[in-house]
């Protein structure tokens, strides 16, 4: 019923930029939470950025703060992750998520997010 579809992944050189998109169907981003996670090769999933759409509050992991920006286009029901100054360590499968309602949990840990996309690959070369 609810589908999140990521796009915009690809390969870039270090220092470059890339914008990821996540289009939602059956869910309205503007009413609640949206977020981005990533899973580097051989590692676990980690939170990257999140937004509480009701008041436009944004949250970022320390590793991407100042380089990544989460935003939304209400009309298109799409959430974006603008990634600048990319580093090789940013290489990962990136996932979008929506509707965080985990009581007593931190958004960046993953549990508590109801809906997930299937991911889009981002590769950053040196």
Give your account of this protein's structure.
The chain is mostly beta strands and 126 residues long. The chain has no helices and eleven strands. It has strands at residues 3-7, 10-13, 18-25, 33-39, 46-52, 57-60, 68-73, 78-83, 92-100, 113-116, 120-125. The strands form two sheets. Strands 2, 4, 5, 6, 9, 10 and 11 form a seven-stranded mixed sheet that branches. Strands 1-3-8-7 form a four-stranded antiparallel sheet, with no helix packed on it. Strand 7 (68-73) and strand 8 (78-83) form a beta hairpin. The model has no long low-confidence stretch (mean pLDDT 93).
End-to-end separation: 40 Å
Overall pLDDT level: 93
* Weakly predicted, low-confidence segments: none
Main sheet overview: 7 strands, mixed
- What level of helicity do the residues show? under 10%
Q: Count of DSSP helices? A: 0
The structure class reads mainly beta
* Number of strand elements: 11
Gyration radius from CA atoms, angstroms = 13 Å
The ordered H/E elements are EEEEEEEEEEE
How much of the sequence is in beta strands?
over 45%
- Overall 3D shape: globular
Quick overview of this protein structure:
With 126 residues, the protein is an all-beta fold.
Identify the notable features of this structure and list them briefly.
126 residues; mainly beta; four-stranded antiparallel sheet; 0% helix; globular
Secondary structure topology:
Elements: E1 3-7, E2 10-13, E3 18-25, E4 33-39, E5 46-52, E6 57-60, E7 68-73, E8 78-83, E9 92-100, E10 113-116, E11 120-125
Parallel strand pairs: 2-11
Antiparallel strand pairs: 1-3, 3-8, 4-5, 4-9, 5-6, 7-8, 9-10, 9-11
């Amino acid at each position: 019923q609810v589908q999140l579809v990521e796009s915009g992944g690809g390969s870039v050189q270090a220092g470059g930029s890339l914008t990821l998109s996540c289009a939602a169907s059956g869910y309205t981003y503007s009413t609640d939470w949206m977020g981005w996670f990533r899973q580097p090769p051989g590692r676990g999933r980690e939170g990257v950025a999140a937004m509480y759409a009701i008041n436009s509050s944004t949250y970022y992991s320390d590793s991407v703060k100042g380089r990544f920006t989460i935003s939304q286009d209400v009309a298109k029901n799409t959430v974006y992750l603008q990634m600048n100054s990319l580093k090789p360590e940013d290489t990962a499968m990136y996932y979008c998520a929506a509707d965080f309602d985990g009581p007593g949990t931190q958004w960046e840990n993953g549990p508590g997010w109801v809906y997930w996309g299937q991911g889009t690959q981002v590769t950053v070369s040196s």
